[in-house]
Write a structure and sequence with these properties.
five-stranded parallel sheet; 8 helices; alpha/beta; about 260 residues; 2 domains; two-stranded antiparallel ribbon; Rossmann fold
């Protein structure tokens, strides 16, 4: 069956339109549109990769990556996006919504998708429900719940070599000589994004922006799963996500115990 993967016992290695409640469906055959939420440092990217490997056969769609691709290509969308970002403004909802709609229309999305970084506003959330209905997807939300103090401690403990770009963690992957890169002997630095005050500001901003969107999805009846995202191995977190999706009939469980490679 297209898109069927085994859920293993352990993984290997603006305002939106008024809320409209979704109909309840049992054994729904429509492909899944998994909307992945998680604060900076929550491991969203890692979970997206694990879910692709083990239970969702479809692309990981990141609006940030789509915009960066246009910027690198130097096309009209890229120039527009770069100007907006450099001015400190948000990329307009209309543009982001259009890019997502174009991406969902691609053939590789037919068996399911994982959305990362979209929606970021209530307007985008409302448009997304229209898009999933138009393209025949069944939306579901996974929210990685994390301990912000752990996130701050981990990210603020990172150091980077300004010459070769190698990243170190003072706790889990320290350099052999404190403050010095193992590869070229350069003095390590703390990136601006890894300063504690910056990290806390980003987390507060994420919380204020995301909570209304999560509430919107709850009100519209979109299945939602809050998964503990700290203090456990990424493989165990991914396994719990897959088991939750199977348990609610959103993806099928495979009849055998093998994990497709």
């Amino acid at each position: 069956m297209k898109g069927l993967r085994r859920v293993p016992d352990a993984f290997a290695g603006g305002a939106a339109a008024p809320a409209k409640r979704l109909p309840l469906e049992n054994n729904n055959p429509r492909p899944l549109a998994l909307i992945l939420f998680g604060s900076p440092g929550s491991g969203k990217g890692t979970q997206a990769r694990l879910l692709q490997q083990h239970c969702i056969e479809g692309p990981h769609i990141s609006t940030g990556e789509i915009l960066r691709t246009h910027i690198d290509a130097g096309d009209s969308i890229g120039h527009q996006t770069e100007r907006v970002i450099k001015s400190g403004r948000l990329v307009p909802d209309e543009l982001v919504n259009r890019l997502v709609a174009e991406r969902l229309a691609q053939p590789d999305c037919a068996s399911g998708i994982i959305l990362d970084g979209y929606p970021r506003t209530l307007n985008q959330a409302g448009v997304l429900l229209e898009l999933t209905d138009r393209f025949g997807f069944r939306p579901a939300v996974v929210y990685l719940v994390v301990d912000y103090e752990r996130i701050v401690a981990r990210l603020s403990g990172r150091r980077q070599c300004p010459v070769c770009g190698t990243l170190y963690s003072l706790k889990t992957n320290p350099p052999k000589v404190a403050g010095i890169c193992d590869l070229d002997g350069a003095a390590l630095v703390t990136r601006e994004d890894d300063r504690e005050s910056v990290i806390r500001a980003r987390l507060e901003e994420y919380e204020s922006q995301t909570r209304p969107i999560l509430d919107f999805f709850r009100q519209t009846g979109v299945p939602m799963f809050e998964i503990q995202g700290t203090g456990r191995m990424p493989e165990r977190i991914g396994q719990e996500i897959c088991e939750s999706l199977v348990g609610h009939g959103l993806i099928p469980a495979a009849p055998d115990a093998s994990v497709r490679s």
